[in-house]
Amino acid sequence: AAILARIERRATQILLPNGADRYDFDRDLLSAIERLTNDVALAWDGNVEQRAAHLDPEMYAAEVRQAEYARLGFNDRLNEILDKLAKEIGQRESGKRDDGNREDRGPIFLLPVDDLDLNPMRTLDLLRLLRMAHSPRLLTLALGNLALVDTVLAAKYFGEFTEPFRHATGTSVWPVSQEEIAQAARQTTAHALRKLLPP
User: Fold this and answer.
1) Which residues contact 112 (CB under 8 A, 6 or more apart)?
2) What is the spatial distance between Cα 154 and Cα 12, in angstroms, rounded to a whole number?
3) How far is CA 31 from the centre of its chain?
4) Percent of the chain beyond pLDDT 70?
5) How far apart are alpha carbons 134 and 125 in whole angstroms?
6) Each residue of 81-106: pLDDT tens digit?
């Protein structure tokens, strides 16, 4: 939602300079960005799971369904919005409208992510989000120490893999050694980074 809010703000600055009146197309486009931003906040930033114990089953089911509908078709909607936005910005900056006889590809959008390793515990969430929200119009430039990210993710997976054994009762013998768990955590980290940060 924060990423889309920045796109919406920049689009408004470009399409409506100095508080200019909105064209119908601009109003529709900016409204579409606003609706998508709201849906993203509902789908990914909501607190339905935390409130599950305090909701009756029907209300909980309705909220879960609403959040899932908000997720469906997200990339298609994002691509459509960015295509329209790029075309409109390209036409404004070139000073002419597209007459249909030429191909106007318009600009692409650059999303810089600095200090990817500054908050390593959130890095995995961020990489998953960037992989989920992809578009040919959106180029992500992520900067950070990959070795540090690798180390922190391996430690995170190790903690998750050992969690069931630490809380097991009635036995003090683990079915696998901690070295085997650490190796599995390193392998999982390598697979995750290859998937989330393709070469």
Assistant:
1) 141, 143
2) 42
3) 20
4) 81
5) 15
6) 888 888 887 777 666 555 554 555 67
For the record, the structure tokens of 187 come out as: 């392998």
pLDDT digits (tens, 9 = 90+) for 117-135: 777 677 877 887 777 777 8
Specify the DSSP element, H or E, that contains 164: helix 146-166
Q: Residue 112 — φ and ψ, nearest 5°? A: -80, 130
Instruction: Retrieve residue 138's tokens.
Output: 């959106």
Q: Which residues of 112-133 are buried (b: 16+ CB within 10 A; e: fewer)?
A: eeeebbeebeebbeebeebeeb
Q: Residue 160 has which token pair?
A: 């998750």
CA 75, CA 64: separation in Å to the nearest integer?
A: 20
Contact 7, 109 (CB under 8 A): yes
**Is 118 within 8 Å of 144 (Cβ atoms)?**
yes
**Reported pTM:** 0.66
Q: Give the mean pLDDT of the chain.
A: 78
Question: CA-CA distance, 30 to 3, in Å (whole number)?
Answer: 15
Residue whose structure tokens are 């889309």: 4
**Of 46, 48, 50, nearest in space to 62 by CA:** 48
| pLDDT tops 90 at residue 194 | no
